[in-house]
Design a protein that fits this description.
About 25% of the residues lie in helices and about 15% in strands. The chain is of the alpha+beta class. About 5% of the residues have low confidence.
Length: about 220
C-alpha cells in the first residue's frame, strides 16, 4: 500500500523531468503514477534496484511486438516490473505477459513517447524518490484506535422515588349474631380390638378418699 498520497503529489509535482503526478485508485490498492517528460535513465535505475536487493525484468516482450490494434487488447503497456525476488519460471511467464507481483512497474505512455513509473507499494515510492534525488520521508504511523466510550446517561435530576403504603389486610368479618356458631364435631373414641380387656374409665380409677373415724372415748 502507498500512504500519504496527498503529500507525495505536492512534493513531486514541480520536480524537474516530471510531467504529471497522479493518484490512481484500484480495488487491489492505490497506486502512485509519475509521468516523465524525458526518457528514464535505465542504467541508473537498475543500479538502485540492485542496491536495495530487488530485481527488474522485462515484461510482455511478445505481446508488445504485435500490431498496435492487437497489442493494445492483450497488453497494458507495462515494459518492466521491479520485484523483490523472482524465479526463472516467473521471468519466462513475465515475458509472455503474465505479470508477477512487484513493488513498482514501468509502463510506456500510450499518449506520448516517454515512460510512466507506477509505484504499487511504499518500497516502490522510496525507490522513485532516490532515483529523483528527493529526500524520502516515511509516512506517519496510523493514529491509535481509541476504544469507544460507553454512552453516558442523560444529565438531569433523577425522578423522586415515591414510597407506596402497604396494602392493609382485609378484616375478618364476624358471623352475624342471629346465626349460632357451628359446634365442633366430637372426635370418635378409638376402637379396641376384639378380646382385649376393657380399660377402666377415668371415673373408675379415681377413688374417693375416706376420712378416718374417731371413736368416742368412755
Amino acid at each position: 500500500m502507498v500512504a500519504d498520497l496527498g503529500r507525495r503529489l505536492v512534493e513531486l509535482r514541480f520536480v524537474e523531468g516530471i510531467e504529471k503526478v497522479e493518484h490512481v485508485p484500484y480495488p487491489t490498492g492505490d497506486q502512485f503514477w509519475v509521468r516523465f517528460n524525458r526518457s528514464l535513465d535505465f542504467a541508473h535505475l537498475e543500479d538502485l534496484v540492485k542496491k536495495h536487493g530487488y530485481i527488474m525484468v522485462e515484461f510482455a516482450k511478445l505481446p508488445s511486438k504485435l500490431p498496435r490494434g492487437l497489442s493494445e487488447m492483450l497488453w497494458n503497456g507495462v515494459t518492466h516490473v521491479i520485484a523483490r525476488k523472482m524465479s526463472g519460471w516467473s521471468k519466462f511467464t513475465s515475458s509472455l505477459g503474465l505479470e508477477p507481483e512487484g513493488i513498482a512497474r514501468i509502463a510506456r505512455d500510450l499518449h506520448g513517447q516517454y515512460q510512466i513509473f507506477i509505484a504499487t507499494t511504499e518500497e516502490g515510492v522510496e525507490l522513485l524518490y532516490e532515483y529523483l534525488g528527493v529526500k524520502y520521508v516515511p509516512p506517519a504511523p496510523p493514529p491509535p484506535v481509541t476504544p469507544a466510550k460507553p454512552p453516558m446517561p442523560a444529565t438531569g435530576k433523577p425522578a423522586p422515588v415515591v414510597a407506596r403504603p402497604a396494602t392493609p389486610a382485609a378484616p375478618v368479618k364476624p358471623p352475624p349474631a342471629d346465626q349460632p356458631s357451628k359446634p365442633t364435631p366430637a372426635q370418635p373414641a378409638p376402637q379396641q380390638p376384639p378380646g382385649a380387656a376393657a380399660k377402666p374409665t377415668t371415673a373408675a380409677l379415681i377413688q374417693p378418699k375416706k376420712e378416718p373415724t374417731t371413736e368416742p372415748t368412755s
